[in-house]
Amino acid sequence: MIILRNISKAYHAQAKSIEALRDINLHVAPGEIFGIIGKSGAGKSTLIRCVNLLEKPTQGQVIVHGEELTALPLADLRKARRKIGMIFQYFNLLSTRTVYDNIAFPLELAGLKKSARAAIIDPLLELTGLSDKKNAFPAQLSGGQKQRVAIARALAPQPHVLLCDEATSALDPETTHSILQLLKNIRDRMNVTILLITHEMSVIKACCDRVGILEQGHLIEDNEVGEFFAYPKTEIAKNFIFSSLPQTLPPAISQYLLPTATSDTHPVLRLRFLPDTATQPIISQLINQFGLGINILQGNVEYVKKHAMGVMLVAVSGEKNALHSGMQHLKNIGVDAEVIGHVPNDIIPFT
Amino acid sequence: MSQTILSLLLEATLETIYMVVMASVIAAALGLPLGVLLYVTRKGNILEKNWLHRSLGSLVNMTRSIPFIILMVAIIPFTRLIVGTSIGTNAAIVPLALAAIPFIARIVDSALIEIHKGLIESALAMGATPWQIILKVLLPEAFPSIINGLTLTVVTLVGYSAMAGAVGGGGLGDMAIRYGYERFNLSVMIITIVIMLLLVQGIQFIGDALVKKFSLFRK
Ligand SMILES: Nc1ncnc2c1ncn2[C@@H]1O[C@H](COP(=O)(O)OP(=O)(O)OP(=O)(O)O)[C@@H](O)[C@H]1O
Ligand SMILES: [Mg+2]
């Protein structure tokens, strides 16, 4: 449905040239929700804006719904854009129009008669749960409601594709969740193909079928979501996966954490396991095979499409050598183990 | 105060209103498109045209920097060409309108700059043409600030019209100079000032009411 072929984009600012995108190849299948994640400045916005040519790529082809947008004259491009909905981080609603008239806006642009609009808009108000806000103005709405209006507006011209540029980044977690549910619902009911960009792993987890990582203008991962979490190909991907899990010690413990070991401290380990290792009984292995004492300080396991993954913080007691071979064992079976500090005995007793 | 003076005052008031209204309408009719053009041709905007933006910009700045009293005198040949004479209320309308055009253009331009760029972006993403963006996004969104600026312009024009009056343009300014100043008629002087004050108050009141009516939905 969306095909990007060898897309590159360079910005020329003053004398410098910034390569925002480098040779991106991307394929979003019909009815798929494709999420692209990346750090600030990675080129996410540039990429999504290249899809409807709000940003003209320096090189490459953009094909949406079988039409090569990069080859179209401006008038035809405008027509094609009507079938590509887009929503934004800050909603971009017209402040002087009611909810209804905001949703009517793209229909008005396309020259649809006033009398024909209600038949399209009313079901969208229903779908987005805004029927009772029909005559409200944007200033009278919450952020989540505004994004719902923007979604309804994007859907009004019955687009094939919906582009979401950090659509939930200005919303609280609960509202984010409901908006992501709505996007899924839309895909299921209207078979709209969705390309979204985000800097939050939780968004990918909540609603994407496929995920890509953008790093300094390169698309460094492109995988089905379950596969991605089970077998991330790059270190950056791993970091993104774990970044979505809480992995800090409670202050009651962390305030006593020392950078170096003394005679009466225990090391604190951070264990990070991906789905293919999460099923192994690693704690009992450490205890039984290596004779270590384990005190769990923090644990977090998450499931993405039946795959478990997690982060655990443990304090460990035992012989220095035993600890060393235990960590070696973990490394061998694919668990990331790292000493993040040392706690005094009297804080975490092992008796 | 004699009956004649009173009727003269009434006539002068109407002349002032006439001059200000005509000049405002003409200036708005030309200044508004000029302001929009100034905005849309700016770098990075929907109809980016650097050379046009720069030339319009300097033209506007140049005209704005000429003091009104000098502009009025300097364009006398032009005024004659258009109105046929260089004295009287109709002749005064020409420099008044001319002085207000760049003023309004700047006001419109800066009102449009305040609009969040994302609105233009989302309209472009929906396939809007530049015309549609101007008519359906830019002008409605900037409407309250534009009205605010127009109010300011009209108030300024009341003051300018008095200056124009002083050099033969008629209206309250003329009256104040000829009766109040040259014939030491203090009450005429005071009355003309009071009327102008009321005019300005009235204009401001109407402007504020309009702005309030159209800003209801804003953050
Ligand atoms: N109009 C522009 N002119 C010059 N450089 C730009 C422009 N837009 C983006 N860039 C640069 O291109 C790179 C990618 O920017 P982009 O906005 O796509 O990043 P992003 O991944 O969306 O980041 P964020 O998460 O902060 O929104 C950055 O280095 C940015 O500075
Ligand atoms: Mg961005």
Can you put this structure into words, describing what you see?
The complex is a heterodimer of chains A (351) and B (219). Chain A is of the alpha/beta class and 351 residues long. Chain A is built from 13 helices and 14 strands. Chain A has helices at residues 44-51, 74-81, 99-109, 114-127, 143-155, 173-190, 201-207, 225-230, 235-243, 251-254, 275-278, 282-290, 320-333; strands at residues 2-13, 16-28, 33-38, 59-64, 67-68, 84-87, 161-165, 193-198, 210-215, 218-224, 265-273, 293-304, 307-317, 336-344. In chain A, strands 6-7-8-3-9-10 form a six-stranded mixed sheet, sandwiched between helices. In chain A, strands 2-1-4-5 form a four-stranded antiparallel sheet, with helices on one face. In chain A, strand 1 and strand 2 form a beta hairpin. Chain B has 219 residues and is mainly α. Helix content of chain B is 84%, strand content 0%. Chain B is built from nine helices and no strands. In chain B, helix 5 packs antiparallel against helix 7, helix 6 packs across helix 7 and helix 8 (171-181) packs antiparallel against helix 9 (186-215). The radius of gyration of chain B is 20 Å and the shape is elongated. Chain B starts with a helix and ends with a helix. The mean pLDDT of chain B is 91. At the A-B interface, helix 2 and helix 3 of A face helix 6 and helix 7 of B. Residues 11, 13, 18, 20, 38, 40-46, 199 of chain A line the site of adenosine-5'-triphosphate.
